[in-house]
Amino acid sequence: MPIEPDTKDWTWVLHRPCPECGTDATAHSPATLPDVLRDAVVRWEAVLRRPDAARRPDDSTWSPLEYAAHVRDVCEVFRGRLELMLAEDDPTFADWDQDAAAVAGRYAEQDAGSVAEALAANARAVADAFAAVPQDRWERGGLRSNGSVFTVRTLSQYFAHDVLHHLHDVGG
Asked: Among 3, 171, 1, which Cα is nearest to 102's?
């Protein structure tokens, strides 16, 4: 059975803690995100060392390997969105279909060690990018194509939740 695309609007995590993973995204900012990512990378590396990392828990749920490949790519997408927000006034982000990316990238067939290395590198790059944003630029805006409004601050919060929620998904 194929994975059902996630069509939920998760922006509500910017207003209240997530009951599934417990993350309070509002506790994070561009300044705290690098520490969140450093800790998350260590946890993702442990997940990817599991002998069953490539095994799906059921036919409709990604394996830990697939989640890790997704997070690796999310790091790159969010870095690009941050760079756009800092370079342009109120840009609209290009659509990114995470489910299509998983199929096209053949996430389930990737090597866990390679995914761990790339996830760590991408997480470092986006952590450095957020850390370099001066506080007086945290309120710069950007839009998702569905109209959801973000600032640099809320983008960092949304991103922190995404990374931590997926660790929760895989018991990391």
From this structure: 3
